[in-house]
Amino acid sequence: MNSIKAAVTSVHSYVPDSVLSNKDLEGMVETSDEWISTRTGIKERRILREPGKATSDMGAAILNGLLEKSGSKPEEIELLICATVTPDMTFPDTANTIMDKCGCNNGFGFDINAACSGFLYALTTGAKFVESGALKKVVVIGVDMMSSIIDYTDRSTCIIFGDGGGGVLLEPNEEGYGVIDSVFRGDGSGRENLHMKAGGSLRPASAETVLAREHYVFQDGRPVFKAAVTGMTTTVKEVLSRNSMEIDDVNWLVPHQANMRIIKSVGDMLDFPSERVMVNIQKYGNTTAGTLPLCLADYESKLKKGDNLILTAFGGGYTWGSSLLKWSYDGG
User: Fold this and answer.
1) Which of 82, 102, 104, 116 is catalytic?
2) DSSP label at 113?
3) d(Cα 309, Cα 96) in Å, to the nearest integer?
4) Catalytic: which of 22, 96, 173, 286?
5) Against a cut of 0.85, is the pTM above it?
6) What is the pLDDT of residues 138-188, one digit of tens each?
7) Is 286 labeled as catalytic in the residue annotation?
8) CATH: 2.60.200.30, 3.40.47.10, 1.10.10.10, 3.40.190.10. Which one for 1-185+216-332?
9) Is 256 assigned a catalytic role?
């Protein structure tokens, strides 16, 4: 049995300075701070407003932070996987653009598009390169500029999403710390309830698609809510069962920050203590692929070496899953 695990040895996050508060949204659409807070748990979100800046610029800030915190040199990074649904361009991939902006010229990169599950999928993908012995320094970033695909006249979506993300450095570990196990699932029929209609090969961009406002996120909330709660809860239970663990063996639950009601429902269905559920949705909203690493960065100081973390997410596709991660260092 392979004794090498891919341990998280550093974590870093980035959010833009500009804040879009619930009060600000009251002047943009028919809504209120009370309405948004009650239904989503969100108080504010960050928006990247600087002209000429894009997802790769946030990714570069994350990568530079990881390099500084870990004492790694740019040329030591062998692979960067970027989870995003808002790439700078359809091609080339945003991962290589991030690497170029940070001087990482001795490796390769690629993107993963699994919507809100993207970071989780990318983390396990990156871990496999480390576990195999092929690579020693792999960076996994989840980051999205959701403001670029949000219709700010649609109160059902513009209140939810924000910009930002985070990332981790994965390195080999033979002491049992790192990514232990993952369970992933998908259901393509869910695309009807959560998608961006135009901009792909099915409906290429045209004057017609722009006028029809088809280049923005569409979400049918009710079926997505039900599928998200069921999907995350089921895969968390499966990961625990596969590893002969109980809820009491888990130090932290790290759920995708989609909606406070979803987070609470998942915690309740698992009978997981609320004080050990990572929550920061009130500050950032839903940053899609960025929520999980943002949580890890925000809670880093509370994490202890040997802590068992369950990361779980649900996103467009549908895509969903859960991963068991044993933390490798004292964050405090």
Assistant:
1) 116
2) -
3) 29
4) 286
5) yes
6) 999 999 999 999 999 999 999 999 999 999 999 999 999 999 999 999 999
7) yes
8) 3.40.47.10
9) yes
